[in-house]
Amino acid sequence: MAKFVMAGKTDCPYYAKAELLADKLQRSLPNFRIHKISILPDDWKMYYNITSDMSEEMMQSIAKENLVTKVNLIMEEQHRASLIQPLHIWISSALNPTCNMLIPSLLSAEVVSQASAISLHLLHVEGNQEELQSLKMETEDLALPQLHQVTIHTDLKEAFQKAEIILLLDDHLCEVTDSKDVQEQKKMKAIADRYTEYGHLIEARASSNVKVIVSGGSLVNLRCSFLLKACSIDCRHVVAVATQLENEARAAIASKLKVRTSEVTDVIVWGDVGDRFYIDLQRANVFNYNGPIKGPPFFSQPVLEIVYDREWLESDFQDIVRCQQAAVVSKTHHGTHMSTANGILTLLKAWNKTSVPSQVFSVGVLCTGHYDLPDDVVLSFPVTFTDGRWSVVSDVTVGDDLKQRLQLSASELRKKMLILESTSEGKT
């Protein structure tokens, strides 16, 4: 509780004005208390032995000087702020646990080396305001040198202003709440509507050079397809993450060959991430394999020349990768947030020029011009990054069997999109 003592001459206009203000504050603020001492003019000098010798003109002069000083300080602060040009990063579904694992590395020079300052915008539509505020405070408590500011948002109308990097983590749209058929229909409709709106907002508000990464464990390609269909930004600025699947495949091969996961490279994920995909090892290599042929640390061997069991590669291996995420969830009772965050960060580093130019990544991109596939769907292809730009790897063999797999993935994805578009238009 705040307690104040105020004393003054009974005929002093300044005391009277201060008394009125004190009474108003006491009525308005429950923890504000004031004790007033009113002294007769003849007793004032004896009571305090203090007499103000400041004239009215001097007080007015000081007041004007204070005003000028304050205005100058505000202008200096505004000028200083104008010199800072932060990189604006937006994260949707910020209350997803993946976001907590992303933030510390995301705000490092290793991931966004081109930014001297970062404005982080945490968006969770209709999310819990207190939880978002706690996430904001925890982020600020990291005291990371590149962090300029953190803002929180629960209204989609505020989304993606000045965005230069957008990370979309909307797995909560896929939560099961009803019977299987009803849930599936609601889930697909919610995704179509949300990502269509995302597309419109990104085109209207984001930077022209924005980089958009769609991630998650479910319907990643469908989300990315609807987003690109709803906006006319360069399709090379929007990708879906397949790195998590790629790393799970590397882990399965590493277990088979008894090497570390990091010693298996250039695994390719084709197709619809999280649904109908295929793991391709035609370019995969393994380092430090304990076999009859050995070499220095930089020496590698093709995986297909070491693993002779083609039946295992085409059946068991594919099933192991397909079931890996579900197996982790069943044991831990929560999503694969750590590996999801790692996949996003790995892709973002490559996109921001910190990868080896020859390194292959699996990325969901628009199929335009590739393998006679429909132009309006997103499938995972092998790409490399050079100078912050990705390009589809050309020196890979795409045989008839793989083409059929890709065409089937594209056909099923396009069918889902057409059904949802018809539903949105009220045709079904």
Question: Quick recap of the structure?
Answer:
Helices cover 45% and strands 20% of the residues. With 428 residues, it is of the alpha/beta class.
Q: What labels would you give this structure?
A:
428 residues, 9-stranded mixed sheet, 3-stranded antiparallel sheet
Order of helices and strands: EHEHHEHEHEEHEHEHEEEEEHHHEEEH
Give the strand tally: 16
Percent strand equals 15-25%
The main pleated sheet reads as: 9 strands, mixed
- Characterize the overall form: elongated
Mean pLDDT: 85
How many helices? 12
Unreliable residue runs: none
- Give the structural class: alpha/beta
Percentage of residues assigned to helices: 40-55%
Distance between the termini: 65 Å
Instruction: Please compute the radius of gyration using only Cα atoms.
Output: 31 Å
Strand order of the largest sheet: 5-4-3-6-7-8-14-15-16
Give a structural overview.
The protein is of the alpha/beta class. Helices cover 45% and strands 20% of the residues. Strands 5-4-3-6-7-8-14-15-16 form a 9-stranded mixed beta sheet. Strand 4 (118-123), helix 5 and strand 5 (147-153) form a beta-alpha-beta unit. It starts with a strand and ends with a helix.
Secondary-structure topology with pairs:
Elements: E1 2-9, H1 13-28, E2 32-39, H2 41-48, H3 56-83, E3 87-92, H4 97-106, E4 118-123, H5 129-141, E5 147-153, E6 165-169, H6 180-205, E7 211-215, H7 220-229, E8 238-241, H8 243-257, E9 264-265, E10 268-271, E11 277-280, E12 285-287, E13 300-302, H9 303-306, H10 310-332, H11 337-351, E14 361-366, E15 378-386, E16 389-392, H12 400-424
Parallel strand pairs: 1-2, 3-4, 3-6, 4-5, 6-7, 7-8
Antiparallel strand pairs: 8-14, 9-12, 10-11, 12-13, 14-15, 15-16
